[in-house]
Design brief:
Layout: E1 19-21, E2 29-32, E3 44-45, E4 75-79, E5 101-103, E6 132-137, H1 138-142, H2 175-180, H3 185-189, E7 203-207, H4 219-234, E8 242-245, H5 268-271, H6 294-297, E9 300-301, H7 326-340, E10 344-349, H8 371-380, E11 388-392, H9 420-436, E12 445-446, E13 452-454, E14 460-463, H10 466-472, E15 476-482, E16 485-491, E17 500-507, E18 514-521, E19 526-531
Parallel strand pairs: 4-5, 4-11, 5-6, 6-7, 7-8, 9-10, 10-11
Antiparallel strand pairs: 1-2, 2-14, 3-19, 12-15, 13-17, 15-16, 16-19, 17-18
Helix pairs in contact: 7-8, 7-10, 8-9
């Protein structure tokens, strides 16, 4: 269903501007311009790197682009597939391809110590703390030695111990003990501080995925355990370690960029304060967490969504409010959660479709993101003001050029996939951060849905959310401003090969008067930068 603009004049603004607004969701703004447009300033297109995408199965090439590093203000954790293909040749390669840390499951044996991977006395990992990341899944809590069944079945929250009495034979069967043992993270890297063991990971991600409860009466028990778990872990962390969780997030759109999300309240598990229940004190819940929320104990929130196959399908329409749309979903999830919480944002990103029998071609994770989508994820996401990414895959090590599996259920998975999507993603990161990393210095201004565009030659200008860009079927444009510099990303999602689109973008604020025209072809990802002219008499718009 389309968003309808209704003609309500909100009043004139200086010479020749007025607004029309919608009453549904956040109000889309259309500004009508009268008179001649100011002179335009050309954007300088960002270079593209010519490369031939791989066609080999179980392989991807990090050298489709050259060296570049992420700005210090941003973070990308590699938890993808195939680091083993490159780490023995050059262990630092991924750190020079935009990644800033490596998940423990993707580290090489040279980089950590364990019971089955011993190291000599005095050994220290070559990975700096900022280059280390740990993901805590269900199994860590649910399996031996803790046997905390709540991690897999949230309705067992009322039976779960926060802290067991000292001397209890089952003392390890408690959330507090499971968090305490994470203090041994420094042993993995040979850098335990002298006072007590602490985790020396740069980032810790929870991926328990038990946030739902079958009985709404158990919500308080669920909240209490999440708050306690996060609070307890913090006492075993180094000062620089950051913590977050794939869930809860303030609002999870599950890939549906719906207008109603902007009017939604934060999810109960994110916002509900801890409070004692009839049995919580008996199971060791401390009074000190009463009144605290999950949001009080995480350093970052993790809104983001994996794609289903429909988002990769160029043959179907994508423009209704309820339609699945790769770029609307990417922007929408950040726009909504940015409004609901000031916490930094890190999204999980995966370049293959997630599994769902409810959608065509989604029963297996066999479909790679098309080239423009893979590149576009790596570009547009950072225009939302997000802090970081957890780059994930369900495969870990890869073996190239393996024969097609005899088991049809394994075809199109793991080593049987073509990973050219990784190369297109790296190309997007390279275009953005190799050439414009200087703009991400903490002083940049993210326009998000305040980006002003026109598709009628500058007669009217729109400022749309990701959802509204989708439902109006106009080019997607986002901009970042830093001083007199403006960086613009634009695309026509699902555009046909050779299809031409033209869109204008402007920034008339802070004394600048910038207008420019962008020519788009197909669904290619446009990226351009300009120095904005400063006009002493420029009018600030309301």
């Amino acid at each position: 269903m389309k968003l309808f603009l209704i003609s309500l004049v909100a009043g004139t603004l200086g010479a020749g501007y007025w607004y029309t607004r919608s009453t549904r969701g956040p109000e889309p703004v259309v500004v009508v311009h009268q008179g001649a447009l100011p002179a335009q300033t050309a954007l300088n297109p960002t270079p593209r790197q010519a490369f031939t995408p791989t066609t080999r199965k179980g392989y991807w090439n990090p050298d489709v682009v050259g060296d570049f590093t992420l700005p210090a203000t941003k973070s990308i954790t590699f938890s993808g597939a195939g680091r083993n293909l490159h780490v023995n040749q050059d262990w630092s390669k991924l750190f020079r391809r935009g990644f800033s840390s490596i998940d423990k499951t993707r580290m090489s044996p040279d980089e950590y110590r364990s019971e089955w991977n011993p190291k000599p006395e005095g050994w220290t990992s070559r990975l700096k703390p900022s280059q280390r990341a740990l993901t805590i899944g269900q199994g860590y809590l649910a399996d031996a030695p803790f046997h905390i069944g709540w991690a897999r079945t949230s309705d067992r929250a009322p039976d779960t111990w926060y802290t067991r009495p000292w001397g209890d034979n089952n003392y390890k069967n408690s959330v507090s003990w499971a968090m305490l043992e994470l203090s041994g993270g420094c042993v993995n890297f040979g850098d335990c501080p002298p006072d007590k063991k602490r985790s020396t990971y740069g980032k810790i991600y929870f991926d328990i995925e038990n946030e739902g409860v079958g009985n709404v009466l158990l919500r308080q028990e669920q909240v209490n355990l999440y708050v306690f778990m996060l609070k307890t872990l913090r006492q075993w962390l180094s000062p620089y370690t950051e913590v977050g969780s794939i869930a809860p997030v303030p609002r999870n759109g599950y890939g549906y960029s719906s207008a109603r999300d902007f009017n939604a309240a934060p999810d109960w598990l994110w916002a509900m304060p801890a409070k004692h229940t009839a049995t919580s004190r008996q199971r060791g819940m401390p009074d000190e967490i009463v009144g605290k929320t999950v949001a009080d104990y995480v350093d970052f929130q993790m809104p983001g969504t994996y794609y289903l196959y429909p988002e990769f399908d160029y043959s179907i329409p994508h423009n209704d409010d309820g339609s699945r749309h790769w770029l609307a979903a990417l922007l929408h999830e950040q726009e909504v959660n940015r409004r609901l919480s000031p916490k930094k944002r890190i999204a999980w990103q995966w370049l293959f479709n997630t599994q769902s029998r409810d959608f065509p071609n989604s029963e297996k994770a066999k479909n790679a993101a098309p080239p423009a989508i893979a590149e576009g994820i790596a570009v547009f996401y950072w225009f939302t003001g997000a802090y970081g990414v957890m780059f994930w895959d369900d495969a870990t090590d890869l073996k190239p050029d393996q024969p097609t599996p005899a088991d049809v259920n394994q075809q199109g998975l793991g080593n049987d996939r073509v990973y050219a999507c990784y190369e297109h993603y790296l190309h997007g990161l390279w275009r953005l951060f190799k050439h414009h990393g200087d703009l991400f210095n903490g002083r940049e201004k993210y326009l998000n849905e305040q980006t002003e565009c026109s598709v009628d030659g500058g007669k009217t200008w729109y400022k749309y959310t990701g959802n509204q860009l989708k439902t109006h079927d106009v080019p997607f444009v986002r901009a970042i401003v830093n001083g007199n510099q403006i960086l613009v990303a634009a695309t026509q999602p699902y555009g046909k090969t050779g299809e031409k689109k033209q869109v204008m973008v402007r920034y008339v604020d802070d004394g600048y008067q910038f207008y420019s025209t962008i020519n788009l072809t197909g669904d290619s990802i446009y990226l351009g930068r300009a120095t904005m002219p400063k006009t002493a008499g420029a009018r600030k718009k309301a």
